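#struct-pred

JT: dropping the chains for the assembly here, can someone run the whole complex?
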Amino acid sequence: MDIVINPQSQTPIYQQIFSQISAQIIRGELAGDSALPPIRTVARELKISVITIKKAWEELEHQGFIYTVTGKGCFVTPLSLEKRADLREHLVTGLLQKDIVSCRELGLDLDAIIGTVTKLYADAE
Amino acid sequence: MDIVINPQSQTPIYQQIFSQISAQIIRGELAGDSALPPIRTVARELKISVITIKKAWEELEHQGFIYTVTGKGCFVTPLSLEKRADLREHLVTGLLQKDIVSCRELGLDLDAIIGTVTKLYADAE
Amino acid sequence: MDIVINPQSQTPIYQQIFSQISAQIIRGELAGDSALPPIRTVARELKISVITIKKAWEELEHQGFIYTVTGKGCFVTPLSLEKRADLREHLVTGLLQKDIVSCRELGLDLDAIIGTVTKLYADAE
Amino acid sequence: MDIVINPQSQTPIYQQIFSQISAQIIRGELAGDSALPPIRTVARELKISVITIKKAWEELEHQGFIYTVTGKGCFVTPLSLEKRADLREHLVTGLLQKDIVSCRELGLDLDAIIGTVTKLYADAE
DNA sequence: GTGGTCTAGACCACT
DNA sequence: GTGGTCTAGACCACG
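RK: done, full complex below.
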């Protein structure tokens, strides 16, 4: 499942898991109707509580990324390419909007912002 | 002081205050050695707890934006233009970093990010 | 047998089966002493576990809709018209009771409920 | 807060709480922006775990009935009369639709359904 | 085997 | 004081 946890991070563990899996679904790496691994298995592998995983799974279900079949497991909701693009657009806009506002507040012009973004993008690989 | 609070926001109130005042200092709107209003006054005007204001002030002092003179109040630290630029750089980097990472996670390339940033910058007029 | 399963539904599969077969018996479509198909056959056709079918059959037997002859299979209990009416009454009451309570809780009066019921009944053609 | 729990019921406790409070909000009994009692207080009064209450509160927040201000508490989302009417309509339709389908399945005509509904409505007071 | 619910108890951040 | 997060552990329903 390719989940990486950073226990030191300020963002809650369940959110880290949520955003990574939802990103994988949006990128199309997890096919529609494919099964997610059982929460107990994930918990064992990541060495964190079952409940924390469950909370991430619940959030994924709440936002429509997965669906649960009791007794069988959790499965990826099939999403059309357009839906995935919309979701990505929406998420990205939400993330960046606050940043742009803050940058403007600090007096940065567009070029300065793009410069920083470019630098950070390169660093992030 | 031009502080606007959104009590329902997810970002803590003290942080909202901190970022707005530090932005004003970095932009040079608050001159070096000028006095900040007493916390009780601010608390009354914003209708929030004195403790919250105090926490914002402490954070500002901790990061070197203001200094306290016991019995007299708090004052803006005089900062050279270069220092202000450095601080701005540092704050902006902190803001953007994790969101850029998230954008990469969602499969956006640099051009797409810059495109969105440009659009949002224009929208924020 | 005309059974339709929705695996993603919140109602357990065995209950879906139970209610559909019991409905057929109550409506008189399944004659008394007629044989139900072997559970293995049903399981194969519906592509679900034998255990699930068995649970549905057990529930049907428990409520008196069918009887088992060891080594021969399961058969529909012969029911008089009055008994069928009684059973129907009982089942319907069980279904509607808690939802009527919820409707009252939401502030609907009897006329409003009847209005909605009438509309939905027509829509369900 | 007028919450009544039935531990024997098959419906989870947190759902019982959720539906009762959401019903109160929809009926307009809980004014917009009024504070809900602290989860610990409710837990003590109902003699159930804090976590169960929290789950109910989370569901209420997820569906937009309440909002949380960290450090201060949870508050009722202000809803217009039309919105409340829409929500009620939507909930009631969802509840009754399944019932109507089942009743038709059992061979009841509209008059029979209305008769049962009327009887149950009277009994439920 | 799967997830769903409930429990008790701890630590943290914010006001 | 408030809610937010994480923990461990138990019991149940479903397949």
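JT: nice. Chain D has a mean pLDDT of 93. Residues 81-105 of chain D form the longest helix (25 residues).
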